Amino acid sequence: MNATSESTNLDFLRSCAILFVVLFHLLLYFQHTSTLHGHLNLMPIGHCGVLIFFVHTSLVLLFSLQRQESRASGTPLFTPFIIRRIFRIYPLSILVVLLVELLRLPVGHLRDSQFFLAHLHATGILSNILLLQDLTHTESAIAPLWSLPYEMRMYLLLPLVYLIARKWRSPLPLAFLWIIAVIAGLNSHYVEKFGLPDWFVFAPCFMAGVLAYKASALPRLNLPAALWPIALAFVTLFYLRHDTVARSWWSCLALGLLLPQFREISTPLFREIFKYIARYSYSVYLTHFLFIWLAFDELHQHSLWFCWFVFLFSTFASSVLLYHYVEEPMIALGHRLSNYLQERRNIPEVLPAN
Can you point out the beta strands (E) in 165-221? Predict the structure, then answer.
C-alpha cells in the first residue's frame, strides 16, 4: 500500500464502509431485531461505516497529496488539492440535493419505518448545496448527506497535516496530534455551547488515517492478506459492543495502525469486486436512501421480491450512470484545472528586453 499503486486492501475497506451504511438504513427501515444474543447491537453499524470512511479518506488523500507534490515539487499544495476535492464532492451532492428538493422527496429522516421530508427554506437549501449544514445548523435534504460537511472541513487542514507528516521521519509528532485531537474531542461540548459544530468529536478518526499514512512508510509486519478482513471484523465488533465516542476513537486508531500491516489481497476475483464497489461507493452513499424509500415505501403494495429487485437494480444502475456521467467527468475537469494552475505557477517570469 503506497501512493503510486492501487490498493485492493483500501478498496475492501471502502467497500465494507458503504455496505455497513446501507445495511444500517435497511435495518432502520425494517426495524429488524438488531441485538444478537443480547451482546451485540447492530444498529451502530452505519456510524461505524462513516468512521471507516473518515479513516480511509484521510489516508487516500494524503497519498494523493504525495503524488501531487512529486509531480510539481515546490508549488503550493492547498489550492490544487482543494479544487480537486470540490470537483469530486460537490457536483453529485448538488445534483442529489436539487433532485430531492425539486421533487419534494421525503428522504430527510427515517423514524419508526417512516420517511419524512426535511422542510428547508431557501437558506437551508443553499446550506445543503454548499455543504454548510454543520455551520448553519440545517437539516440535510437527504439523510446520508450529514457527514459530507465534516469531510469538507477536514480537507482544509489536510495539506498542513501532510506537511507535518512529511517533515518528520518519526511518527511521534503525528501521535501527539492524535492525542491533541482526543483532548479536543473530550472538550468539544465547550465549543458546542457557542453554537459551533462538533467537529472535534471526529478529529481523532481523521487523524487515525494520518497515522495509517505514516505507518505505511515505516517497517511493517507484512501479515498475510487473508488476516486483513479478520482484523477489520474484530475492530468492527469491538466498536459494536459499546457504541461510545471514546470507543470510536480507539477503533479508528486500531484500524489506522493495522491497515498498513497486511499484504495486498491478490485474488483476481476479489480485486475486481472490491474495485467496482469502491468506485461506485460515493454514488451509492448518496442515493441508496432514496431507493430504499422508492422500493419499500412507495412500492410497498408489490411483492417483497419485486421491491428488493427495484432497490438493488436502481441502486446499482443509478450509481454506475452517475459515476460515468457526473462523477468521472467532474473529477477529470477538476484535475485539468488543478494541473493548469500548477503549470501556470511553474512558468518562469519573462523579463522585458532592455
Answer: none
Alpha carbon distance 318, 99 (integer Å):
13
Residue 172 in grid coordinates: 511521534
Distance CA 92, CA 113 (A): 27
Predicted confidence (pLDDT) per residue in 41-91, tens digit: 788 999 999 999 999 999 999 999 999 888 877 778 899 999 999 999 999
3-state secondary structure of 204: helix
Q: What is the per-residue pLDDT across 315-344, written as a single tens digit (0 to 9) for each?
A: 999 999 999 999 999 999 999 998 887 777
DSSP state of 261: G
Q: Cα(77)–Cα(345) distance, rounded to whole angstroms? A: 12
Query: And the C-alpha cell for 179?
Result: 492525542
Q: Which three cell numbers stand for residue 309?
A: 429487485
- Sort strands 114-116 and 35-36 into parallel, antiparallel or unpaired: unpaired
Quote the cell numbers at residue 73: 515539487
Give the chain's largest Cα–Cα span.
86
Q: Look up the pTM and report it.
A: 0.92
Closest CA to 213 of 252, 168, 162, 167: 162
List of residues 6+ apart from 226 with CB closer than 8 A: none
Centroid of chain to Cα 68:
20
